[in-house]
Every structure is written in structure tokens, then in C-alpha cells.
Amino acid sequence: MKYNSARKKYNNIYIKSLTLMFLFFIFSVMVLNVIVPDKKFSSQENRNLKSKPKLSVDNLLYNKFTSKYEKYIADQFILRNFWINVKSRSEILAGKKENNDVYLGKNKYLIAKFKKPGKEAFDEKVKAINDFSTENKKVNKYIMLVPNKIKVLEDKLPEFAPVENQLEYINKFYSGLDKSIKTINVFDALNKNKNKYIYYKTDHHWTTQGAYYAYLEFCKSSGLTLKDANYYNIKKVSNEFYGTLYSKAGVTNVDSDTINVYLPKKHEDLLVNYVEEKKKSSSLYNSSNLNTKDKYSTFLGGNHPIIKISTMSDSSKKLLVIKDSYANCFIPFLTSHFSDIIVVDLRYYSDNISTLIKDYNITDVLMLYNANTFFEDESILNISDYD
To answer: Which sign, positive or negative, has the C-alpha torsion 233, 234, 237, 243?
Structure first.
């Protein structure tokens, strides 16, 4: 009896101790989430993290605040990368072929999921771009939505992986645009070359080779005289690249990627002006970034609000590229075709685009996005000044 009584007493103390420890842990996490400063960028995922949403009438009326706040909490949760890695390891040990919205594909390909866009957001983007076209009737307008691995390399997906047809949404979006906007289909060119190294295995980006095939399609649509592959020296600058999907999926049994740059055999002088940072360079590449985790940011030094590239081209054309990071390795192919190239990332640039077009005497506009980012991100809505 004395033994049972002592054991019962010990069990009660043990349970109470565990309960107190758990409550202390929860309380500590809550306090740390409040006092630890928010982070702006995740180097592990190579993306900007959500900031605290503003409590406004618009957000409340349209039920946006709760959704935005949930995303903010998810992004800013204390020790977020640690918890992501714990989840990743446990999922892999359980034999799952998908983790953190990344499929563990065949031949060690990591493939990001495609999320079906909501109808309202889809229609708002169509309207924004059509309004932009109406505002800027005198310029040539092109849009290139690049399909991701999940469509082009669908043969690499795990068996029976449930996926939406990304290409259908791209084509549907194109069909809703004003006829003055030339839509560029790059799926056929990428699909034709799907057995080549056109997407990184561990990252969400296409490779420079993939971007080159898209450049050829842009030349066909815009009437530019293309430069064939012999125009370039292909230089390997890294074979130790582990991209965003590697970090997100939490895998270790994959091979590193190789980054190549296409350099004109005949040197082309140019000036790259990072306008808001007040920095200038004579190169489209920032080789110091090859020593960082985000080696893809070698192209154009990563993402910036606005970049002005002045070339030695005798062309009278001036191009505005409205883009995400897929354009960063694509833009170097354009320098011989335009005297000036203005590069804008609407995730960071907030000034009026139509005013910018007038200020820089823009003749051509290219909107270039990968489909995943385009359908998930809302920044393209800032392209138009219309309400």
C-alpha cells in the first residue's frame, strides 16, 4: 500500500511538472512572438516574409484582415525554420512523397505544388492588366507566363500526385486579355526540350538554358532578330547550388545544381543602375552572391524595386520589364536589342507605372512571371492606376 501511495504521489508530481513545463513553454513562445522583432526576409525560402497587416476599414469590410494576419503569424512564428525542418524530417521518415507543398519527384527533382487560383483574384489580375493596356495604348505590350516544373516536367512527379493543370490557367488568363497585348506561349518550347537542363532540381527557378528557349519565343513574337547559341560562351559559375525547394522540403539525399551564365563572345559595354540603392555596375552579374546560399541572386544581384540598364545597342527601342525573379536570368539575352531596359519588380516598387513609361520614353513592355508566383502574388494589381 505504501508503495502504491508513493507511486501515485510521484505520478501526480510528474504530471503536474509536465503540465507546468508545457504551459511555461506555451507562455514563452507567446512572449517571444511578441517581443522578437519581425523578420523581413527568409534566406532559407528566398522570399519576403509577411509583415503585420494594418487594421483598416477596407480590410475589415472585405474580410481581408484575418487572412492576412494568419499569414503574418505563420511567417513570423518564433523558430519558424526549426519547426519547418522538424516537420520535414518527420514527413520524410514516414515515407511521404510530398512535404511543405513540395513533391519529392523522380530523378531527385523537387517540384513545387501549383495552387489553383481563386476566381476573384484571377479576374482582378485580368482587369488590372487590361486597364494598364488601356492607359498605355501607344506602347507594344507582351506577357509571358512561364509554366513551372509541375507542368513541363510532370513525368517527374510521384505516382498519383494530385495536381491542377497549370497550363489551362495560363491559357485561360491569356484568353481574357485585351487583343493589344501579345501573349507569348513558352510551354511548347520548354516541353520540346524537357529532357535538357531547363529547370533546377532543387530550386523553383528555370535555368539559364530554359530562359534562352523562352528568349527565342520572345524574339519570334516581337520581331527581334534572335541571337543563336553560338553567339554566347556558356560559363559554369557554380556547381554547389541548393535552392529554395531543397530548404523547404528538408531533404538531404539530392544532388546540387549547376548555375551557368551565357556571356556574349563579343564584349558588350553596359551600365546597370540600381536606382533606389544608388549603386551602379558594369555587369549584369554579382559574383559575390555565389558565396551565399542564394546563388541564383548572382543574376542582377537579386530582386530590386527598379533597375535601369543602359546598353550600347543602336536600337531606338526602350523596354520596360515588369517581372518576378524568373526574369533575372532572362534579361541578359535582351541587351543587344534595346538601348535601355528598365526593370521593375512590383513587389517592391510602388510608384505609378504609366508615369514611369512616359518618363523613360518606353516603347515596349514585357510582363514576365512564373505561373506559381503570378497566381499567388497580388503585386501585379499595382500595374494599373485605375480603381
So the answer is: positive
| Chain centroid, CA 177 distance in Å | 23
At position 262, the amino acid (one-letter code) is Y
Sequence-distant (6+) residues with CB within 8 A of 139 are 320, 357, 362, 363, 364, 365
Contact 342, 304 (CB under 8 A): no
Note whether 195 and 155 are within 8 A (CB). no
Taking the chain (387 residues) in runs of 10, the rounded mean pLDDT of each run is: 59 72 67 66 60 66 64 64 61 69 95 97 98 97 99 96 96 98 99 98 98 99 97 98 92 92 96 97 97 96 98 97 99 98 97 98 99 97 82
Q: Which helix (H) or strand (E) holds 213?
A: helix 208-222
Phi first, then psi: what are they for 90, rounded to 5°? -65, -40
Of the candidates 116, 90, 114, 86, the residue with the CA atom closest to the CA atom of residue 102 = 114
Pair type for strands 364-370 and 318-323: parallel
